[in-house]
Amino acid sequence: MLDFxxxxxHNEARQGEAYAPFSGDPNQYKKRFYIESYGCxxxxxxxxxxxxxxxxxxxGATRNLEEADLIFINTxxxxxKAEQTVRKxxxxxxxxxxxxxxxxxxVLGCMAERLKSKFLEEEKLVDIVVGPDAYRTLPGxxxxxESGQKAxxxxxxxxxxxxxxxxxxxxxxxxxxxxxxxxxxxNMCSFCVVPFTRGRERSRDVSSIIRECRDLFEKGFKEVTxxxxxxxxxxxxxxxxxxxxxxxxxxxxxxxxxVALISPELRVRFSTSHPxxxxxxxxxxxxxxxxxxxxxxxxxQSGSSRxxxxxNRTYTREWYMAKVDRIRQIxxxxxISSDIIAGFCTETEExxxxxxxxxxxxxxxxSYMFFYSERPGTLAERRYTDxxxxxxxxxxxxxxxxxxxxxxxxxxxxxxxxxxxxxIEGDSKRSDKDWMGRNSQNKVVVFAKENYALKKGDYVNxxxxxxxxxxxxxxxxK
Length: 478
Ligand code: SAH
Ligand code: SF4
Ligand code: F3S
What we know:
The protein contains 14 helices and 23 strands. It is an alpha/beta fold. It folds into 3 domains: 147 residues, Methylthiotransferase, N-terminal domain (Rossmann fold), CATH 3.40.50; 238 residues, tm_1862 like domain (pyruvate-formate lyase- activating enzyme, Alpha-Beta Horseshoe), CATH 3.80.30.20; 58 residues, CATH 2.40.50.140. Strands 2, 3, 4, 5, 6, 7 and 8 form a 7-stranded mixed beta sheet that branches.
């Protein structure tokens, strides 16, 4: 997560095949499916819902493509490049399909929603197209496709939250899990395709969220990340069971608190916060509970008030900077990260410099950085001209990346000598003699196992002795 990713979506680091190990007799399943996910954490969480729906119908997951009767690809439309990646992967699936008679290919997620049945015309070997709100109908669609029809369901819903479905944890480390708390987005950031692919915002039933988090904790998970495109606008009104009893709506701050109260041993994270919506209430709740991680992903997108207005972000540069001040005032040790877009329509050198200076001001620990990619149907595509030349976009992005590298290095250097409580996630990438975990601020910490009897999912205090740009290196302290 702390690698600097350019032109990649959140958590694309986790990209790759997802699988659920077979439980019990492998012959218990009538069919096997393989699912691969692209895009944001929401998509990864959705694949776990899809796996659950398919499991119930007697389909078992496999991570072996050759073995699959059904191949699903859960797609992302956020930038053109994300769609190109999916198209490339589809051509590879096509070859497999030619070799294996009866194998079906299904496209799920945002690209399915954006292109709808056009997908079937463009990609002749795709059999099933399903949008993010229609996964419950997948088993029926598979049947239709098996009988030779093309199966499409891209209906968006105002209610669907899959609240009652327990996700099948795919490719999980058994320590940390994503929990969707809402779907869709009502903001109309002019560059963004998400409101079109995911539909209207709706909040999931609070009791089903708490149940899922508690269940995860009971299964040994130690960290949950509450997911939504704009978590601060979470708002759930429970249906009143008693006549005349007042309904008490649940805000994001209240939800956070309820999840934090499950156990002090369960860490709580969330993503994404919109600078216009994050409240003092949320910040104070974070400060009050040690197990709510001191880390906020607060995408700025641009540091120029003029560009922010064109982007329809509804805050100014000054408002954003005041939010950063407020966070640091309430939680001086809070980590902050960002998303930044270089080269949005009409962006001048002056605007670009404003972005660099807001980055300096905010001292981000890390950022996801992209150059602007025009998306069909968005407000920006309809209203503005994508007029910053690609070389200029790339050069500005490069400057943003270089600045972020320096800021990350500086942020890590400040941690030298400090001791952090780290949640162990597993072996480090480089050596099984080292553990890898994260501190509350979401920084990756690597340290020698030594002779301590520790396992993943344990908390341990680690003193930072050295660092790279992306990682803190430390030693266990007793
Ligand atoms: N809901 C989240 C982000 C969703 S998309 C939020 O509001 O912050 C993740 C990131 O992709 C965005 O924050 C933005 O930086 C980037 N992004 C979205 N649309 C883009 C586009 N058309 N071109 C380039 N980057 C884009
Ligand atoms: Fe897109 Fe804006 Fe919604 Fe985020 S808040 S998903 S950037 S429209
Ligand atoms: Fe991509 Fe859809 Fe997420 S467009 S970023 S997968 S909501």
